[in-house]
């Protein structure tokens, strides 16, 4: 077997020892002035073959071999019968690297499209309601500090909306079967949210003064909007969205590095990310079911969409405008209008 003239460090002093290295069966033999070591190959941490740089071969006890001429080391290792792992061979091949990258992208895509939604449903099913309520309360507190302010809607108007919606919910669900919810009235003028409504995990539902004013003469439409948000509560869409985002962040951290402080972004997730089209259709169906059982025609929601569209154009100077939170990123207004119009 060929011998390699190299340098040995014992791990206890900075002195460099000139030695020869040789493979004898399953043993690495190191010899030189004042040095003689026989190390089982199973205890040797071999350097990976690279195009540039020195080779560092780590030995038990803190010692190491340092060889400045990388190609010379690689040639010696190959001539000595040292087989490098297949992973190293793949790392040195640009074709293999491209193939691995494409496979990684395919895995991430498949996980996002199919794996994460399935996993999120499984996780949501086992999350206690107390945890969900705490998450929603924390998110509401954060949103109130940054995007909302106390409602200026008269107490009598608030109570009338509460009573009308409560009556519709009681008609739609058998006693004790309605989803638990808490309706909050807030003003959104400082954040520019305008007429809006949204649901947070744990049953927290927010209706802005601006939406109440926009539909002041259409109380049934307000009930329909709240019924839609109750659909999000019932199906736990907000929690599912947070779980999906958490799972995606975990997946990204595995692929490209660490993603930190996810919980601190929960309010942003809930206000900026869109529910899936499936979730929105589920909530629209919930609104239709509640309105029907309350003796209200679902077509009252058409007025809501007409006025929201008019408000958008007014704010944007005649052009369309996307609303954040609940009313943005839903299925198209045309699709939803037709759905409510045709729901007899």
UniProtKB/TrEMBL annotation:
* Swiss-Prot/TrEMBL keywords: Hydrolase, Membrane, Metal-binding, Metalloprotease, Protease, Transmembrane, Transmembrane helix, Zinc
The cross-references to Gene3D superfamilies, in alphabetical order and at most eight, read: Metalloproteases ('zincins'), catalytic domain
Q: How is the cofactor bound?
A: Binds 1 zinc ion per subunit.
Q: Does the record bear Transmembrane helix in its keywords?
A: yes
- Which InterPro entries does the entry link to? DUF7092, Mito/Outer_Membr_Metalloprot, Peptidase_M48
Highest taxon, organism lineage: Bacteria
Q: Which cofactor does it need?
A: Zn(2+)
Q: Which residues cross the membrane?
A: 96-115
- Which ranges carry the Peptidase M48 domain? 159-341
* Domain DUF7092, first and last residues per copy: 4-79
What family does the entry list? Answer: Belongs to the peptidase M48 family.
Q: What is this protein called in UniProt?
A: M48 family metallopeptidase
